[in-house]
Amino acid sequence: MTEELKPFAADTRTVDPTTYDCILLAGFGGPEGQDDVIPYLRNVTRGRGVPDERLEEVAHHYRHFGGISPINEQNRELKVALEGEIAKRGLALPVYWGNRFWAPYFADALKELHADGHRKVLVLVTTAFSSYSGCRAYREDLATALEETGLTDELQLDKIRQYFDHPGFVKPNIDAVLSGLHELKAANRADDAHVMFATHSIPSAAADVSGPRETRPDGTPVATGGGEEWFAGGGWYVEQQRAVAALVMDAVAQEFPDTPWSLVFQSRSGDPSTPWLEPDINDAINALDDSVSGLVVSPIGFVSDHMEVAWDLDNEAQETCEERDLAMVRVPTVGVDPQFVSGLIDLVEERHVGSDGGAAREREALTALGPWQDVCPTDCCLGRGAKPTIASA
Predict the structure, then answer these.
(1) Which of 117, 223, 232, 267 has its CA at 20 to 30 Å from residue 283's CA atom?
(2) Residue 10: pLDDT band by 50, 70, 90 thresholds?
(3) CA-to-CA distance for 21 and 3, rounded, in angstroms?
(4) What SS3 class is residue 384?
(5) pLDDT for residue 374 is more than 60
(6) Does residue 260 form part of some domain?
(7) How many Cα atoms occupy the beta-carbon half-sphere of 345 within 13 Å?
(8) What are the phi and psi torsion angles at 334 (to 5°)?
């Protein structure tokens, strides 16, 4: 990316800081026992007509780990870490936690915080990048939860912006990749190492409509009318991830110059005939030149080491590397890294001003793409038809 390539209006879709009552940590959710696995997968695939026999094909990933997804415990740890950082800064903001697909559900969290007397809620979503599944689906499900609970007129839910290029997300990923390369160096495998940044594959059609639609990711204006595709090539979802990966590798180059890297995809599902983002990480590993001595895999698209990281990378990608006798180091996600936790509360302080009326924190971004928007256009990251959302303009 060059400095002039900036999504039109994304940095102007901001809202004035105000005083909030609490924070809602919005997660995906996951099963916490063998009996939960199929009901959880039914929740995730609701409305798509997926039979239980197909769900059982995916369930074995969870059953391998006792039916327990790590994601809920990781969000409990993140909630505690956020509460600690909030207390350190003297902010009077309790943290609630709700999920899209498993307990505690969004509706439960909204009823709880409403009963506690809160009315203005700042929502912190556990995804960093722009896509239907990573942003809009959360905003839709929160709007649905408001309607289901009868709290639409009682609660104001405002979402914190996507934070893919905030220093709190980028810097722990730089540290992680550096650590992985040092591990390969200690094993004499760093001279011809490769870095793969892994993110969740999504349908190509969904990627192409991710993010605001006034410009293409290459910065050129979008022609209107004629029914044309507004752009192709992965949309802002892919562009954001490429931009962050490039930032990481620019920093890494100070110690490991000229290390090649690539953006790869994982965890695709659904109809095999539907185009999804490629290359799959296992195909990309097999396509590496025989001269590659070691591989660092960075799960850049995720904020915690949940099931898809644990299974698709630590099992499947690791096995692919072993078949090639290729040393692989899978580095951690940002998790509860103090820099990440601190950065999330920096994002809170961009939007929240305390009762003392002090100034809001300056908005930070490390790429030319940001800071990203606080509110989204109604056609941003469209999924299966437009539905009501929170944080839309």
Answers:
(1) 232
(2) low
(3) 37
(4) coil
(5) yes
(6) yes
(7) 24
(8) -70, -30
